[in-house]
Structures are given as C-alpha cells and as structure tokens.
Specification:
This protein has 99 residues and is mostly helical. It has a domain of 33 residues. The protein contains 4 helices and no strands. Helix 3 runs antiparallel to helix 4.
Amino acid sequence: MFRPGILAALFATPALADPDGYGHMSGWGYGMGMMFGPILWIIVLGLVVAGIIWFVRSSGVGDKRPGKSDAISELDLRFAKGEIEADDYAARKKLLTDK
C-alpha cells in the first residue's frame, strides 16, 4: 500500500522548485516591499483618517459654535425680559442681521 516514490516526490518538490538554491525570490529576499509596504499602509491609514475628518466637518456633526440665529434669539429673550430698551434692541438686531 505504501509507495516510497510518492513520498519522495512530495519531499523533493520544494527542491525542484528552486534548482539553483538561491531561496525565495532568487536570493533578493523581500526587496523593497519590506520598506515600502509599511509606508504604503501608513499613507492609506492617513487617507482614511483624513477622509473621516473631512466627512465629519462637512456634515456639521458636532458643530456647537453659536451662530447669528442664536445671538438673535438671545437678543429677543433679553428684550422680552425687559433688560434692554426698544431702540437698543432695534440697533443690535440691525447689526446682527446686516451682512
């Protein structure tokens, strides 16, 4: 049942794949891939992070800066409470709404 020729062929196959004996990639090793591979992944990771930052900033998620509408609503509230006079209210509202 056991055939020694098959076993010898299995063990001889790696030696036949590299008859000159230089090893992997004809003795050149991994070459520039060892240096440029990690650099490539750092660039890819940087692009992914930059894309996420751009997307978050452009979508306005987490934007808590007060705008003019917040200032106008605060002005309306102060006028309603009686903290400022009508002429002062009108002047400030004009300043906020002018572009």
